[in-house]
Write a structure and sequence with these properties.
By secondary structure, the chain is α/β, with parallel strands linked by helices. Helices cover 40% and strands 18% of the residues. The chain folds into 2 domains: 257 residues, Hexokinase, domain 1, CATH 3.40.367.20; 139 residues, Nucleotidyltransferase, domain 5 (2-Layer Sandwich), CATH 3.30.420.40.
């Protein structure tokens, strides 16, 4: 174990290498820079959307959800008790995942899936899970595509208006359509409106799935890059996945192998699209340094395509299940089996500690959660967070030790089903 621990410490892979005080201080400083418009790696995008939205019984809204992997469309109607009812649901793959698409192809695929709904409501809530500047007209203009989406022509185009233009070309009357584009994390925060009635002093939306991001509510007076806004609050899309952080040499080397190598470093250290690839990279480096046997190296290198976050997690969940490739790799060698467990666990626990830094920064920035009877409610969404072995568990441990015990801030973590869809529907009804 000492050999593995030395390897992990030497390359800043161990969770002990994450200084929560230092990193949280840095994260908060970057948040302020973003709000002031003075650069930094956190965009801190104003949304012009408040968490205080009125919903009326019987209202319907067309909902579009462009996620990291899938594009979902449906109709959401609020019943007499203001409970959301989802109908006419459809899911297809996101354009640009498998191969690069033009702007015409991108919006054409979106329109193909919206046509059946377009006459069912004049309100459209569009959950767009990528970095985009939100205009005062509630449209979204992509800044960059993360999560390996390949649609460069779409960057800089207003996504809602471009979609309506495509539908207009197909003969649909879109003159009365009103829309609101929100990030998936903003939608996750808004979903607390429909899915959580617990008393709270603040809200945070958090996604850790294919990618990662955070949203919270900020006082307008502190968003100095918008000018002299003195009253009210609005939700801020932090774009936390772009936090510029590299703890060790392996992080920097791995970033260089990814699309947009100079962006979304934080996302590449903790999210589902990258954790498996990073673990593959780390294990191969460990092989080079003699941590594993020659037989393990031969077996591991024979795994086609390397690891995914799911297959990496499987090993920690059931490290004796011979149906799993990684278990086969260590068959007959207990030292390899233990070393592999320690390396993978460290990658995940470090990701959990970084996740706790992210969430702690958002909660501290809200200036809420000081009374345990009125905590900050964190609506956490994303399969990576919930399905990756130990990730949620260790995140909560670090939040308890750092945020509650050290900073006196109290949280309640919830999971609201269909959060991006529900939040987008509320955003669509707010315009």
């Amino acid at each position: 174990m000492s050999v593995v621990n030395d390897f992990l410490m030497r390359h800043n892979l161990a969770p002990e290498c994450v200084d929560m005080d230092k990193l949280t201080e840095g994260f908060l400083a970057e948040m302020k820079m973003g709000l002031d418009g003075k650069g930094g790696s956190l965009e801190m995008i104003p949304t012009f959307v408040s968490e205080d939205c009125d919903i009326q019984p019987g209202q319907s809204v067309i909902v579009l959800d462009a996620g990291g992997t899938n594009f979902r469309t449906c109709l959401v109607t609020f019943d007499e008790e203001l409970k959301p009812v989802i109908s006419d649901f459809r899911k297809v793959g996101m354009p640009g995942v498998k191969q690069e698409v033009s702007a015409k192809e991108f919006f054409g695929i979106l329109a193909d899936n919206v046509e059946r709904l377009i006459d069912k409501s004049d309100r459209i809530g569009f959950c767009f899970s990528y970095a985009a500047n939100i205009t005062p007209e509630h449209d979204g203009v992509p800044i960059i595509f993360s999560k390996e989406i390949k649609a460069p022509e779409v960057v800089g185009m207003p996504v809602a208006q471009s979609l309506l233009n495509e539908l207009k070309e197909r003969g649909y009357d879109v003159s009365n359509k009103k829309f609101s584009v929100v990030n998936d994390t903003v939608a996750t925060l808004l979903a607390t409106k429909a899915g959580c009635s617990d008393p709270a002093s603040g809200y945070v939306g958090f996604i850790l799935g294919t990618g990662t991001n955070t949203a919270y509510t900020e006082n307008n007076a502190l968003i100095t890059k918008l000018g002299n806004l003195k009253n009210g609050k609005q939700i801020i899309n932090v774009e936390s996945g772009n936090y510029d952080l590299a703890l060790g040499d392996f992080d920097k080397e791995y970033f260089a192998t990814t699309k947009n190598a100079n962006a979304y470093h934080f996302e590449k250290m903790i999210s589902g699209a990258y954790l498996g690839g990073f673990a593959t990279f780390v294990i191969k480096k460990a092989i080079e340094e003699g941590i594993f046997s020659k037989q393990f190296a031969e077996r591991f290198n024979a795994i086609e395509g390397g690891l995914t976050t799911t297959t990496m997690s499987f090993y920690l969940e059931k490290c004796h299940n011979m149906d799993y490739d990684l278990v086969k790799c260590v068959e007959g060698n207990e030292e390899d089996a233990l070393n592999l467990w320690l390396v993978i666990r460290a990658v995940i626990e470090r990701a959990a500690k970084l996740t706790a830094v992210n969430l702690s920064s958002a909660v501290i920035k809200t200036d809420a959660g000081k009374n345990p009877r009125y905590p900050v409610i964190i609506n956490a969404d994303g399969t990576t967070f919930y399905k990756t072995e130990f990730l949620k568990k260790y995140t909560e441990i670090y939040l308890h030790e750092f945020l509650e015990k050290k900073h006196g801030r109290f949280i309640k973590m919830v999971r609201i089903d269909d959060s991006p869809v529900l939040g987008a529907s509320i955003a669509g009804l707010s315009v």
